[in-house]
Amino acid sequence: MMRPLPLALAAALLAPLALSPVTAQATEAGANTSTRYVSLVRTDQPGGMFGYWGFDLYTDQKVGARFEVPTGADVRLARVGLWLMNNSGSFQGRVTVSVQTDALDEGGSQSLPSGSTLGSWTAKVDTLGWTPVKQFFTSASKPWLQAGHRYWVVAESAAPALQNPVWVTAASGTLFSTTTSQGSWQTGGDGAAPGLIVDGIAGE
Fold first, then answer.
1. 159: nearest Cα among 86, 82, 80
2. How does residue 203 score in pLDDT terms, banded at 50, 70 and 90?
3. CATH code of residue 48
4. For strand 144-145 and strand 54-56, is the pairing parallel, antiparallel, or unpaired?
5. What CA–CA distance (Å, rounded) separates 124 from 195?
6. Residue 92 falls within a domain, yes or no?
7. In a domain, 26, yes or no
8. How many domains is the chain built from?
9. Tens-digit pLDDT profile for residues 128-138
10. 75 and 201 in contact (C-beta within 8 Å)?
């Protein structure tokens, strides 16, 4: 079973992650090609010098990755995409993905997932074994995300160890991330980026 490496591992070796917003027409399979998304986060695909590795999503660990909406205009949350693989070759555990506000916006003392959820989705991991797939979770309600504010994508699973989904890291780049330990969020930090896409829709 892949165990999570320290969040700071390889951060100094990996190229900085570009987070500047871009507007692009949807091209992924299953996407509405008439939709033009504002890209809030788009990491590199998995791979790189360390091969495929990532953060276990199972009964004892949740994983959170932070992103920030650019200043200037609010956007609606359209969809979230995670690069996932599977520690099992025969069992497809369910993964729950949520977008949460930042604890600092809710009166907390540090930047962590707040538990205040704007959207949540649950689905089986769409792969068997260590073959990464890009799996999307689309928001039906499309909640507003405020310009200049930070938000968290949180992934979790009730799957047992050795049969659990894995959130695969990107080949390059960093994100501010955190994991839980004994049920509590650890202090976050910049480290190897979990493979992540967050798309919004502007001006609606």
1. 86
2. confident
3. 2.60.120
4. unpaired
5. 18
6. yes
7. no
8. 1
9. 999 999 999 99
10. yes
Taking CA atoms, 130 is separated from 107, 111, 196, in Å, by 40, 31, 17
Evaluate whether 98 touches 56 at the Cβ level (below 8 Å): no
The answer for residues whose C-beta is within 8 angstroms of residue 56's C-beta and 6 or more apart is 1, 2, 3, 4, 87, 161, 164, 166
Quick check: 52 and 92 in contact, CB under 8 A? no
What pTM does this model have? 0.85
Task: Quote the domain boundaries for residue 43.
Answer: 38-202
**Is residue 54 included in any domain, yes or no?**
yes
Three-state secondary-structure class, residue 103: helix
Residue with token string 């995409």? 81
In 41-74, which positions are buried (b, 16+ CB within 10 angstroms) versus exposed (e)?
bbbbebebeeebbbbbbbeebbbbbbbbbeeeee
In a domain, 121, yes or no: yes
Tokens representing residue 36 in the block: 């033009």
Q: What is the pLDDT of residues 56-108, one digit of tens each?
A: 999 999 999 999 999 999 999 999 999 999 999 999 999 999 999 999 999 99
The whole-number pLDDT of residue 37 equals 92
